Amino acid sequence: MDIERGVVHDLVKENVPLNMEGKIMTIAEQWKQDGRIEGRQAIIQRQITKRFGKSITDMDVQERLRKATPEQLDLWAERILDAKNVDEVFKDN
């Protein structure tokens, strides 16, 4: 279900006490950020599998991706383009 941001904002404004509105919007923003991170993790898993034949079920790869910061995920996404093997993607981490 795709709900426009304005619709959600209006629903919150109409149905949530004023002192709670900011907290709910903060939670929603955190969920969005979490979704972005999960999306990056999934893309990197697919890229590693495609480029190196490394199974996405490889526990070491999954663990690294799960614990990574957004900045690390961005760095690894770039490294995949030039890396000769999966270890080069994660070097120095």
Q: Which radius of gyration do the C-alpha atoms yield?
A: 18 Å
**Amino-to-carboxy terminus distance:** 37 Å
The largest β sheet comes out as: none
* Whole-number count of domains: 1
- Strand percentage, roughly? under 5%
What value does the average pLDDT take?
81
Helix content: over 70%
Global structural class: mainly alpha
Shape: elongated
* H and E string: HHHHH
- Multimeric state: single chain
The total strand number stands at 0
Taking pLDDT < 50 over at least 5 consecutive residues as the criterion, the unreliable ranges are none
Number of continuous helical runs = 5
How is the topology of this model organized?
Blueprint: H1 5-15, H2 18-52, H3 59-67, H4 70-79, H5 86-89
Helix pairs in contact: 2-3, 2-4
What does this structure look like?
The structure is a single chain. Helix 2 packs antiparallel against helix 3 and helix 2 runs parallel beside helix 4. The mean pLDDT is 81. It contains five helices and no strands. It has one domain. The N and C termini lie far apart (37 Å). The protein is elongated, with a radius of gyration of 18 Å. It is an all-alpha fold and 93 residues long. The longest helix has 35 residues.
